[in-house]
Amino acid sequence: MFVIATAGHVDHGKSTLVRALTGMEPDRWAEERRRGMTIDLGFAWTSLADDEMTAFVDVPGHQRFVTNMLAGVGPVTAVMFVVAADEGWRQQSAEHLAALHALDVRHGVLAVTRSDLADPGPAIAQARERLDGTGLAGIPAVAVSAVTGQGLATLRDTLRDLTRALPAPAPGPARLWVDRSFSVRGSGTVVTGTLASGTVAVGDELLLYPSGRTVQVRGLQSLKTDVDRAGAVSRLAVNLRGLSTDEVRRGHALVQPGAFAPVTSMDVRLVRAADRLPAQLTLHLGSAAVAVRVRMLGPSAARLTLATPLPLHIGERGLLRDPGAQHVVAGFVVLDTMPPGLHARGDARRRATALAGMRDRPTVAEEVGRRGAVRREALVTAGVLAPGDADPDGVVAAGGWLVDPVVWKQWAAALHRVVDEWAAANPLSPGIVPDAAARRAGITDARLVGALAAEAGLVLDGSGVHGRDTGIRFPEPVRRALDEICARLHDAPFAAPGAEDLARLGLSRQHLAAAVTAGVLIRVTDGVHLLPGAPAEALRRVAALRQPFTVSQARAAWDTSRRVAVPLLEYLDRQGVTRRLDTARRMMTKEPR
Q: Which domains does the chain have, with CATH numbers?
């Protein structure tokens, strides 16, 4: 399907022409027919050739209803621009063209109506002059009369050629801007809109913005025909399950989950704007019209703060309209949906310079390079990376982040420096915990520390981040005390020193933890430390007992106290080499080596 919007001044025959082309009445309301003018959006369709359907979004031309017009034009990439032969170019012709140019609409047909009432030549020449310098410069022109039928066949052929020349929809996630919401008896809430990208199917779960609520597609119609699935570009009616009509309205959007994020602040490039813009304007994008606060950053750059969040991608185009003056004051291109803060003097000027160097559609590598590091999902919801794309070449992918290679090397070097500094200041605790290491090294996310440690030739284990050589250097009194304990345990492997012995030798909990890290001792439980070979010796001795055995039998085999025997048995249980049968008995589960 192809979708074409109409544009042009009020009462220049847009609706009449659509009716003549399609045989359908595009106007919606009895009030519209009574007044003889389009107030809101109308929709009609026809087959121009080869059974390919073309839908028309008929927009109002009256100045009072420009907001409605923008809601119809916003999601559409082709236009039938209508100018009356007997009136020529008028005020709303100019405003409609300004909007289309700012939206970068480049595909269209100029239809000069009422050619039975006046020579269409002057109106065609005048319109071509006004279109010159815009994206619609050079579009074909057709003189037509909906009353006499003159030129209708030529217009149909020209529109058919237009649809054949339209580029294929850009690949992307599903998003449908809602332009109408109503209730159908027996079905519930139905919304209509133009699906400009992606695919929607019956049963799909979508997100409704700005609420972020999950909704389910109960049914689909395209041009009043039930369908199970529809792809871009399509005019759709979507029946939503479990949603009342007062919860959805024009300007809301149905989007594919995980493919968009609600945008409340963004930096934009201005198109055809004055040097200064009013601080309060209305943003038009898709079918949405949202109040925004404007902060000028430079002659062609601004930061927009939205009163209502919208699901937007980098590279999209929209309009800024002054509701007081009632005219479009600028177009814009979205350059950044996650802009940095502006706090220091000169930040705005520096930001404008940075924005001037950005492309409308950046590559992943460009976006990562500009940010240094960014969550992968953030680039997906910003429209820079497709959800199913592989991690791109030229960036480092780790822990859900995409990192610029230069930044990655800098982080690895900073982590190595932090670990060295920590080891020098804490000789008994050479390992620094990842959170502290990330904070000191300026690493964005502590979850990246493991991969960076490998990059820097470091080790991340239970003791934290440290060099491959733990580098523990015990003070001489501590070393002598540990030597004494080791000698005693060598002679009596299960005679773990008690608190009084440790205090007499001057060994603190920190000293013992460092000894465990260094592999000098093992920790069985608080207050019970043995040589590393003690568990194997303990298992060898209980293997000689009749199975199952009791705590008392194990204690006797080990020649130790209950203070050591009970936690040592629990230690062996945790290792899976013994198993507790009941309150009194255990048995071995593995033979000792």
A: 2-165 (3.40.50.300), 175-255 (2.40.30.10), 262-361 (2.40.30.10), 406-467 (1.10.10), 484-588 (1.10.10.10)
